[in-house]
Amino acid sequence: MDYFFIGTSLIKIVCLLGFVLGLMNYAVYAERRVSALIQDRLGPNRVGPAGLLQPIADAGKFLLKEQFTPAHVNKLYYWLAPCLAMVPPVITIAVVPFGSTLFGVPMVIADINVGILFVFAIASLGVYGIVLGGWASNSKYPFLGGVRSSSQMISYELSLGLAVIPIFLLVGNLRLTSVVQYQIDHGWLIAPFIGDWTNLGKWLLAIPMFISFLVFIIAVLAETNRLPFDLPEAEQELAGGYHTEYASMKFGLFFLGEYIAMITGSGIIVTLFFGGWHLPGIPDGSHGWIFGLINIAVFFAKVAALIFLFMWVRWTLPRFRWDQLMRLGWLFFFEIALVNIFVVAIILIYFHL
Amino acid sequence: MSVFLFWIFALMMLVFGVAVVINRNPVASALSLVVSFLALAALFMSLDAYFIGIIQVLVYAGAIMVLFLFIIMLLDLRAEELRKINWVASAGGLAVALALMVQIFAVIGRFSLAKQTFPSLAKSTSDDVHRIGLLLFDNYNLPFQIIGVVILVATIGAVMLSRRETR
Amino acid sequence: MAITVPRPNLNWRERMFLPAIAAGLLITLKHFKNMILRRTKVTMEYPEEKWDPNLPEHYRGAPALVRDTDGRVRCVACQLCEFICPPRAIKIIPGEISKTDRFAKVEKYPEEFDIDMVRCIFCGMCEEVCPEQAIYLRKDYAITGFTREDMMHHKDKLLEIGGVMHGVVLKWNEKK
Q1: Contact yes or no for C117/C151 (Cβ under 8 A)
Q2: Taking CA atoms, which of A143, A303, B70, C174 is between 20 and 30 Å from C130?
């Protein structure tokens, strides 16, 4: 038994989980402030300085509300669904490298060799919470929400999976830490020409990589039920969708689960396309613990920037119609991701990258 | 430690596997199957076969069972729960299952390879993703391609069958 | 009869939708930036900032009783407002003015004049019906209280809100 490994892992789990849960609460706050500012409003600014204590007030409200269970629901699944919606995104964080090293300990909880597949596998379990919540509510609008959610998740998982294949053609490894290491050595994947300006192949590679990034980020939006794709909860059509029959903390788990999923999704995107914790000019944690901390800060700054992008998109674009969503997923993103793989493969062979 | 985990997950897999059969509610059955798959994936991972384990979760628990659940939820579950149990058929099924189990035990008991312990995968230098990839695309390239074509044919067939007639 | 709206024919660039999405994102970003830089100012943060100086003359706030320049409560307890009040928020108990008083010929005065601000709908009918122009709707709107009793405006409170009204009706003056 490697007690050092177990001990450091436990510390990492506790710290990361605590931090991410805090980040989740502040993501809710940020969502409200950003949406307000985009709409020329102010947003919550009363509780504490600039409204910074608002998440605590929200959490208190969620917890203190009555745990109401409607009479017509399927009790076991009704109570199980919010937990199932919350847990998968939390688990997914385990494989994301959120920093280089700190005191020689790698800043990733589980550096497994199937990293990205693990992310997809666990993320695909997230749909059970929504589907079960919709079904167990035993009421038509939540049910429609659940049905929509399951078909949407399955459709966009394909594009999600296909969009990352070019990266792994390039890196040759599914391990997320190797993806970060590759980007440190060869430039970020969103702009692979950085550091190798004279290489035409790298410039050509930037085009399919950008397409890959677009498809991936749109698929992540769809997977996390964020706004252009929030058909499972579409308030105007489904009266709140799968969580219509939920109240208090059970609703809170659904609601916060979406934000955790958003944080995790941003973490994955940062890891895959934006060099993870790497910022040019800043050495990794082996040069001193202060750099290790800076690396972690860089990672979470990138995550925060992406979360802002998600919110920005949410408060700009209107919701898709159902058939448009399906057509977009199956007839456009699927094909473009597939073609993208071939293009990257051809570039890789032709330029011997 | 890992023996302990093995027993936990093996027991979990079996209990939920039985639950798939004995649950009257199809949704409960489907969810039990999902838990069973997850436990199976955990068993694969305890053998250091991360790729197989993850694919188990990704494909079976994440995609196929979601589609199953999707269909099951559209059924009339009350009719399913009211159906009477045919005890004779159940007993017959149980007997067949027991007979099969006895057979499997008998075969495995005589199988000499089953008595040796295999070398652990963790000691190998390359990881299992590479090995499976090399195996699929080098040794079994042709069968792999043929399976791909068969699945493509099946997909096209399904699309053709489900297509509405347009004038 | 249904009107068929022809769908516009989009060229390939429009059908990509990406330029349109980018344009939309830029618009929202502009709003965001202007809010951050405090260039747009729409919201008024109420308890700190008030709009009170800009309230229009015809603003209908809390009803109040007024005194005239002689310091007399103008109300003569005719109870018209009590009858007209749609939510029946007003309750008046009239009293008689003693014969020795300077305003003996007014005869009546309100011994008690209660307006239940929980009920009041700020319609202004009391002001309109008052023959003495004794009740006015003032610009007070922040009427709060922790109990129902707090929300009951008694005579002294009403007079405090109302203050002294100059001019207008002077028909009970000595000169007349």
Answers
A1: yes
A2: C174
Would you call A154 and B55 a contact, using CB atoms and an 8 Å cutoff? no
Do strands C63-65 and C90-96 pair parallel, antiparallel, or not at all (unpaired)? unpaired
Q: Which residue of C has its CA nearest to A332?
A: C16
Tell if the CB–CB gap between C24 and A316 is shorter than 8 Å.
yes
CB-based contact, B40 to chain A, within 8 Å: no
The reply to whether A83 touches chain B by the CB within 8 Å rule is: no
Over residues C51-89, the pLDDT tens digits come to 878 888 888 888 888 887 777 788 888 888 889 989 998
- Its ipTM equals 0.78
Q: Which helix (H) or strand (E) holds C127?
A: helix C125-129
The rounded average pLDDT for each run of 10 residues, N- to C-terminus, in chain B (167 residues) is 82 90 82 89 83 85 82 72 76 90 86 68 64 84 91 90 72
Which run of H or of E encompasses A303? Answer: helix A289-314
CA-closest candidate to residue A33, choices A44, A23, A22: A44
Contact A309, A338 (CB under 8 A): no
Backbone angles phi, psi at C39, to 5 degrees: -85, -40
Chain A / chain C CB contacts < 8 angstroms: 34
Chains A and B touch (3+ CB pairs under 8 A): yes
Q: Which of C17, C21, C32 should be substituted to probe chain A, the one whose Cβ sees the most A Cβ atoms within 10 Å?
A: C32
Q: Are strands C152-153 and C108-116 parallel, antiparallel or unpaired?
A: antiparallel
Q: What confidence score (pLDDT) does residue C176 get?
A: 46
Q: Model pTM?
A: 0.80
In chain C, the residue whose alpha carbon lies closest to the alpha carbon of A214 is C18
Using alpha carbons, select from A307, A252, A265 the residue that is nearest to residue A86: A252
Among A5, A114, A118, A120, the strongest candidate for a mutation testing the B interface, having the largest count of B CBs within 10 A, is: A114
The domain locations on chain A are 3-351
Query: How many Cβ atoms sit within 10 Å of the Cβ of residue C53?
Result: 6
Write out pLDDT tens, residues A85-142: 888 888 888 888 887 777 777 777 877 778 888 888 888 888 888 888 888 888 888 8
User: Are A8 and A108 contacting, i.e. CB atoms less than 8 angstroms apart?
Assistant: no
The verdict on A282 touching B (C-beta cutoff 8 Å) is no
Q: Do B62 and A125 meet the contact criterion of CB atoms below 8 Å apart?
A: yes
In 3D space, the residue among A316, A317, A148 whose CA is nearest the CA of residue A234 turns out to be A148
